[in-house]
Amino acid sequence: MKKILSLLLLLSSLSILPAKAVDYVYFGFEPDIITNYVAVKKKLGYVRLTVELMMDDANKLAVVEHHAPLLRDAIITIIGQQPADKIRSIRGRNEIKEMCEEKIKSLLTEETGKPVIKKILFTQWLDN
Q1: Concatenated DSSP letters for 95-109?
Q2: What mean pLDDT, rounded, does the chain reach?
Q3: Cα three-residue angle 31-26-28, rounded to 5 degrees
Q4: Secondary structure (3-state) at 65
Q5: What's the number of CA atoms in the CB half-sphere (13 Å) around residue 61?
Q6: Of all helices (H) and strands (E), which one includes residue 125?
Q7: How many helices (H) and strands (E) are present in the chain, helices listed first?
Q8: pTM attached to this predicted model
């Protein structure tokens, strides 16, 4: 009986270390991004979107906050150059999101030497 208890005690003391869970941090642009795009027949349309940047380290949040005006401008510039059919389609929105993500990673790499963010999320998209 003592051997069994000793064995159980030994087995319970051995711990299998779980893989480190990544705690993601999000930065949201405040206020929402509102910008124009060229719609049909040279008429202006507008887009209002909520943008979140996902990072895998809380220490990166200060870097993103510092460069927020540059990143906001890049998003506004990209959206303003898109045609109405791309703005209004799901596939087009995904392409725009990918363009924005690549541009933001590129800008942050130029400024800091690292892409800093993992992903960009458009959590709300309203267009007319």
Answers
A1: HHHHHHHHHHHHHHH
A2: 87
A3: 5
A4: helix
A5: 11
A6: strand 119-127
A7: 5, 4
A8: 0.79
Closest residue by Cα to residue 47 from 17, 5, 22, 83: 83
How far apart CA 47 and CA 51 sit, in angstroms, is 12
Task: Give CA–CA dist 52/56, Å, rounded.
Answer: 13
Strand partners, 26: 54
12 or 63, greater pLDDT: 63
User: Which residue's structure tokens are 């887009």?
Assistant: 47
Per-residue confidence band for 119, with pLDDT thresholds at 50, 70 and 90: very high
- Domains of the chain with bracketed CATH: 18-127 (3.30.479.30)
Within 10 Å of residue 45's Cβ, how many Cβ atoms? 15
CA distances from 24 to 30, 51, 66, 77, 111 (A): 19, 16, 19, 27, 22
CA distance to 10, 12, 71, 77, 122, per residue, from 35 (Å)? 64, 59, 14, 9, 14
C-alpha to C-alpha distances, 94 to 16, 62, 104, 119, nearest whole angstrom? 41, 27, 15, 13
Bond preceding residue 31 cis, omega within 30 of 0 = yes
